[in-house]
Amino acid sequence: GIYHLQQSNYAQALNFFIEVQNYAESNSDLNLLARVLMNIGNVYYELNQYTTAISNLQKATTLAQKIDDN
Description:
The protein is mainly alpha-helical. The chain has helices at 2-6, 10-26, 30-46, 50-69. Helix 2 runs antiparallel to helix 3 and helix 3 (30-46) runs antiparallel to helix 4 (50-69). It is globular, with a radius of gyration of 12 Å.
């Protein structure tokens, strides 16, 4: 995903990150989920879809804070 993001292959990056998001959610892996939501937010930022980018970044931040509190 990161490679595709760096190569500006945003559709491929997003597809990969969404697969990872599904994996993280199904396995309750909050650390991975926070990281992948941040990456998804970065893809949407690059696509100039700022509202969706902010939403994903906020979800990542909330998860990171939850993880830090535990």
